[in-house]
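Meet my pick.
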Amino acid sequence: MLATTRDGAVSLLTLQRPERRNALNLDLCRAIDAAARAEVEAGARVLVLTGEGTSFCSGADLGGVYGAEFLDALYGMLHGLTRLPVPVVAAVNGPAIGAGTQLALASDLRVADVSARFGVPTARNGMAVDAWTMRTLQTVAGGGVARRLMLAAETVDRDEALHCGLADRAGTLDDALAWAAEIATLAPLTLAHNKLVLNGGSDADVDRTFAACWASEDVREAAVARTEKRAPVFRGV
């Protein structure tokens, strides 16, 4: 259902329900949440999410059971990804529809291959997504695109996603992993602080992470590296 592999400081989480186009059910939502937290606790500095086969994630499993338990697991997982102290990169290797677009939005960066497309067709099935989804979509892709997806149930292909900011880079899973490896060399405390601010963290938490950056050994390591004319090696302490 979910495969986790590690290469250095980068952990890859692969949704493995290709027969259901990697649709999210209760168990998969819980598995993503648990694996993401476990990988960060084990030292991963960047997470990459992708789907097995030709789909990133086709949405919520329409054959599943809906209700409070599923919604709690879905939104707990999505919001949990936004609260992780490390960047999350979505390698969108095909359609990301409904909850698939939500999963991409919960990621910090999105790399889209040629077959990627995005949509939130709740108006076609009478369902709804939370305000966070629509506001994040509006922030990332712009009000016009958000309204087309939410009010006209349209989809956005890879090229338009790149143009409007819904996708950050064009590329394959290998490209996403290579980008993640580059990001993993950056200062972890700074990345955690920047992500917290960008995702609307509280003033108290932002003050704490700001102070932690300036008090860290990484600040001193960067200064020493400059004098020694080498790349800094950040430890996140």
